[in-house]
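Why does residue order matter? Because the sequence determines the fold. Keep that principle in mind as you read this record.
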Amino acid sequence: MGPGQFYYMQQIRGLEVCAIAQQSPEEKAQHVPTHWRIFFAVNSVDETVKKVAQAGGKLRLPAMDVPGVGRIAGLLDPQGGAFAVFKPAQ
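Structure:
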């Protein structure tokens, strides 16, 4: 998230279940409509990225650490469906 953007984690009974985030300036510039983005919890973001590539998927957003949150990567399945993977920091 860049300066001035927000990102809120939501919990149910103490478990983080979703986040609400503002669209990036890049998405706005590309006229990407407001949307839902699904994140799958994984044991290893980097291993999952490799497996997705081996299965014909593509990397959309390189794996990166989000301080205090965890590690994420954005991917496309072989048919172009967008999703992300996430490993919590804790």
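The mean pLDDT is 87.
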